[in-house]
Amino acid sequence: THISHYGSTELVEMSSDNSEGRGEKRKGGNDEEQVGKLVRRDLFTLLDHDSNKEESRIEFDGNAVIAELRRDPKAARERYMFSESCTYPLHQAISLGAPLDVVEALYESYPDAIKDTKRNRGRTVFHLCCKYNTSLEVLSCLFEKWPDGLEGKDWDGNTPLHLACECNPSNELIEWLLEKRPDDAHEERHPENALGGMRYSRHDDAPVHLYLSRKSPLKIDLKLVSSLVEIYSHCVEISDGEFYYTPLHHACKLGAPIDVIRLVLEKLPDAAMVTDHDYRTPLHHACESNSSSEVIALLLEEGPDAVDFDDKEYQTPLHIACFSEEVSLEIITLLLEKAPQCMEWLDGMDQTPLDLAYSSEFVSLEQFSWLLKKCPEDMKVNLGTRAIDGWWTTPLHHACKDKDVSLEKIDLLIKRWPEAIKVKDHTRSTPLHIACARNLPLEII
Predict the structure, then answer these.
(1) What is the pLDDT of residues 23-46, one digit of tens each?
(2) Domains present along the chain, CATH in parentheses
(3) Record's Gene Ontology CC terms (predicted)?
């Protein structure tokens, strides 16, 4: 055994005839020398894993930690320079998702560690539990031992509820926090930076913003959203500090169920007209996230003028709907009924919604034909021969670049705009040049 700056370290020599072959052989002349590996088994080594990597959390050996604490309980009293931070073993174990028996063993070895807030960006054990540990029983156990600790904020202004709403997949754990400290739903990360006014105010995230910015809509709990909004009804009016998203922006971007969208709009119908830092309304985000037609209809009902809004790329919701991964003719119909003139509008790249639909790999021939029928007649005249991007390519050029293009699609374009065959792009190539270069089927050529 020797002492390092990490604390006490036990070195164990592995035998050369180990069944797993962990010994190393070193040859010298005619003699063969067996050299065993030295394996360090101290508390630091057992806990020195990256809490942000799932494989590290899987490798964590809780039973080995308990065994080491029985051998050397004083090891839990030291702060260790782990790869991520300098902190107590209790905090590091919680970050790795340690089960209840490991957390209790570390606490019993050194109870004072639970109140340390000088490391981990001022995060308490409750912050770490909400960020990394999905176990409600661990959080409840820590609360019994230090109930006042649940009140603190970290250096970034986060309460444990903020981190749970942002990171923790357990709705049950978030409900428990709301029950213990409902006032935390009012807390913004840095409310002292807020300015007056809904559209141009600079706020940082409230818990409801963080909860609705989750990646998967399947994890959104309507009852929980309702609780967060009921406790802090003003939250539906404010924008977050990064993208100026309101809760409705977050919900629409996420593709949240219609009940969640309706809940927010009931509190603030005008939220449907608020724009974010890209000048996008919730309707823009709903079209991009392939929301249901019921959600689109609800947003149009509460904010009908949003259909005319263009974002910083000069794209209307119709532009976005025509270029989405799951093009819905039902949604496009709803948008065109409110603003048919949007079909002629050009975005920042001088493209109409129809141009985007054609260049999209997700639009079928039937959908494109349907969209074409919706175009004004005067717009159709030059559509087939007009360049739709910066390389002077027409829809027919684009079609010939697709090695899987169907004869029907080529036929549709040529019959509608026969003069497009002669148009040259920026490389002076006609559609025929491109078709030959891409080895398209002879019938297309």
Answers:
(1) 333 333 444 333 334 344 699 999
(2) 1-116 (no CATH), 384-445 (1.25.40)
(3) cytoplasm
